């Protein structure tokens, strides 16, 4: 609900970068009814995060064939996931060089969640308040029906928020000690994105990010 999917999409459009969304991977497995998808669906319905083992397996599998610049959207969420990711990347002489933390007020996030609709096969996300579909309830590209995530409700939000805090605080400390963490503050994606773009250009330069200007 912080807008990480929106930010990932904007970064992808601006820079030559591949985006791997842990949420999209999960939803696709749930929609297909895979073994992992069924386990994940039960955990999500309880307001719990999907287990580290499942997330590590799904994401690292996606990373195997990614050689160009890439961005992980929504992963890692726990210290165990972070350590496992570092270990897998080290095997191929790679490492994370930037971690972005989005700081958005809780009341803003809750409203976004209540207004959110998703096209599961593609992972496209719509929001009735600022990014509505052209036709209510239908995906702009395929015309297929949009759905609500089972965990997009106030009760589950409170459970997930408490869990998120307990998991995220040590994770942020982990990356802060490595000097690769940066936090951006704002109430809207339009406020936050220019901050992210400036920081990416400052750190890596346009040439390294696949753009000419």
From TrEMBL:
<keyword id="KW-0418">Kinase</keyword>
<protein>
    <submittedName>
        <fullName>Adenylate kinase-domain-containing protein</fullName>
    </submittedName>
</protein>
<dbReference type="Pfam" id="PF00406">
    <property type="entry name" value="ADK"/>
</dbReference>
<dbReference type="InterPro" id="IPR036193">
    <property type="entry name" value="ADK_active_lid_dom_sf"/>
</dbReference>
<dbReference type="InterPro" id="IPR006259">
    <property type="entry name" value="Adenyl_kin_sub"/>
</dbReference>
<dbReference type="GO" id="GO:0004017">
    <property type="term" value="F:AMP kinase activity"/>
</dbReference>
<dbReference type="InterPro" id="IPR007862">
    <property type="entry name" value="Adenylate_kinase_lid-dom"/>
</dbReference>
<keyword id="KW-0547">Nucleotide-binding</keyword>
<comment type="similarity">
    <text>Belongs to the adenylate kinase family.</text>
</comment>
<feature type="domain" description="Adenylate kinase active site lid">
    <location>
        <begin position="116"/>
        <end position="151"/>
    </location>
</feature>
<dbReference type="GO" id="GO:0005524">
    <property type="term" value="F:ATP binding"/>
</dbReference>
<keyword id="KW-0808">Transferase</keyword>
<dbReference type="InterPro" id="IPR033690">
    <property type="entry name" value="Adenylat_kinase_CS"/>
</dbReference>
<dbReference type="InterPro" id="IPR000850">
    <property type="entry name" value="Adenylat/UMP-CMP_kin"/>
</dbReference>
<dbReference type="InterPro" id="IPR027417">
    <property type="entry name" value="P-loop_NTPase"/>
</dbReference>
<dbReference type="Pfam" id="PF05191">
    <property type="entry name" value="ADK_lid"/>
</dbReference>
